[in-house]
Amino acid sequence: MSATAASDLLRAGHRKIEEHLDPFLHALLHLTPERVGEIRRHFEEIRRLAGPHFEKEEGVFYPRLRPQHPELLAQMDNEHETTRLTERYLGELLASLPEAPGERDLTELHRLGIEFHDAVQTHIVAEEDYLLELADQVLSESEQQVLRARMQEVSSAVRR
């Protein structure tokens, strides 16, 4: 395993989320009533991947770095909260859309979908450019391995 094992595990999670973010954005930018199902599918997959990912970050990774870098971790916490709030609103909207959504429904879906996409993508970039880079510099190889093992335990517990 690499010296940045825990950081790399989080980066790999980001890549999996991004596999759905790009087609999600494409469907939003070319939104028609026929694309709502596609948007739903990608949204649900992002949601499915992001939940356990956030648990690993908040339950294992962030606590290790928070004492030395409280401002940066407060920013990460705020980004998670913004993402969760936008996710909730978008989920509610998608659940309430009629089978044949009108122009007003599509406009709101576009607005909330873009907001959700941007919140997730912005967080990924900030986390990788700041938090994971910092972690790669300050955490030893053994600390990275311990954090990775703990994050994998979180993944196993979530699957049960």
List the topology elements.
Blueprint: H1 5-29, H2 36-65, H3 70-96, H4 103-138, H5 141-159
Helix pairs in contact: 1-2, 1-4, 1-5, 2-3, 2-5, 3-4
Outline the structure in words.
With about 160 residues, the chain is mainly α. It has a single domain, classed as Four Helix Bundle (Hemerythrin (Met), subunit A) (Up-down Bundle). It is about 85% helix and about 0% strand. It contains five helices and no strands. It is elongated. The mean pLDDT is about 95.
Write a brief caption for the model.
With 160 residues, the protein is mainly α. It is 86% helix and 0% strand.
Terminal CA distance? 26 Å
CATH topology, by name, is: Four Helix Bundle (Hemerythrin (Met), subunit A)
Broad CATH class: Mainly Alpha
Based on the structure given, which CATH architecture is correct?
A: Up-down Bundle
As for the number of domains, it is 1
- Overall shape: it is elongated
In angstroms, what is the radius of gyration?
Answer: 17 Å
- How would you describe the oligomerization state of the chains in this entry? single chain
CATH superfamily annotation? nmb1532 protein domain like
SS summary, helix count: 5
> What is the string of SSEs from the N terminus onward?
HHHHH
| Residues in helix, % | over 70%
- Overall structural class, as computed from helix and strand content, comes to mainly alpha
What is the β-strand count? 0
Please describe the biggest sheet, giving its number of strands, its sense, and whether it closes into a barrel.
Answer: none
Strand content: under 5%
Give the integer mean of the pLDDT values.
94
Q: What are the segments in which pLDDT stays under 50 over at least 5 consecutive residues?
A: none
